[in-house]
Amino acid sequence: MTHAHSAILTPASVGVNEENTNNLVTIGETGRPHGLAGELKIRPIVDNPNRFAKLHHVILEAPDGRRARFTIRRIRNQNAGCIVSFHEVTSIEQAALWVRAEVKISQDALETLPDGEYYHFDLVGMDVFTESGACIGTIKDIFSTGSNDVFVVKKQDIEHLIPSTEEIVRHVDVKQKRMVIRPMEGLLEHDEV
């Protein structure tokens, strides 16, 4: 849908506070550094990596809680992700400080999606029901298999992996936080539905 220990990164953290980060959404995660000039690989969690090309700034939130604003110098696509160069990061050592950071932007900066497409943050926390009305659980996570996303749906100790396909996902109501599915035979391991 995600900080600054080093003095060289302090300027990037200016302007990042609770007041303007409450509406941030995670759109990707940084991977390992790429090259010696401080570029980072980014794995987008949006369906179209080209959405990154329109961005000028992002917030990186490291696993240890550090958070800073970065200005994008250059983005280029690579495989299922992209390589990003930031003005504030100029060495592999600086880039290594931001490995596994969540890439975030303001919710206001998101473009409107076509009907039938949703941002992950809209779906996580959504309750999932069968067409007959049985509650399967709540979407806790989403991951991509390459061909489609998969919803991790949990209810107490039971976990279901629900493919995001037109055949299975019948209705999504973002405002009501409700999804209706038509489970294929064998999809739901437990026969409670």
In brief, what are we looking at here?
With 193 residues, the protein is mainly β. The chain has 4 helices and 12 strands.
How would you characterize this protein structure?
- With 193 residues, the protein is mostly beta strands.
- The chain is built from four helices and twelve strands.
- The chain has helices at residues 10-13, 18-21, 92-96, 120-123, and strands at residues 24-34, 39-44, 57-61, 67-78, 81-86, 102-106, 127-130, 135-144, 149-155, 158-163, 169-173, 178-181.
- 27% of the residues are buried.
Structure characteristics:
193 residues, mainly beta, Elongation Factor Tu (Ef-tu), domain 3, SH3 type barrels, 2 domains, six-stranded antiparallel beta barrel, six-stranded mixed β-sheet, 9% helix, elongated
Would you spell out the secondary-structure blueprint of this structure?
Blueprint: H1 10-13, H2 18-21, E1 24-34, E2 39-44, E3 57-61, E4 67-78, E5 81-86, H3 92-96, E6 102-106, H4 120-123, E7 127-130, E8 135-144, E9 149-155, E10 158-163, E11 169-173, E12 178-181
Parallel strand pairs: 7-12
Antiparallel strand pairs: 1-2, 1-6, 2-5, 3-4, 3-6, 4-5, 7-8, 8-9, 9-10, 11-12
- Number of helical stretches of at least 4 residues: 4
Q: Helicity range of the residues?
A: under 10%
Low-confidence stretches: 1-19
Which architecture of the largest domain does the CATH hierarchy give at level 2? Beta Barrel
What Rg, in angstroms, do the CA atoms define?
Answer: 19 Å
* Strand runs, count: 12
* Top-tier CATH class of the largest domain: Mainly Beta
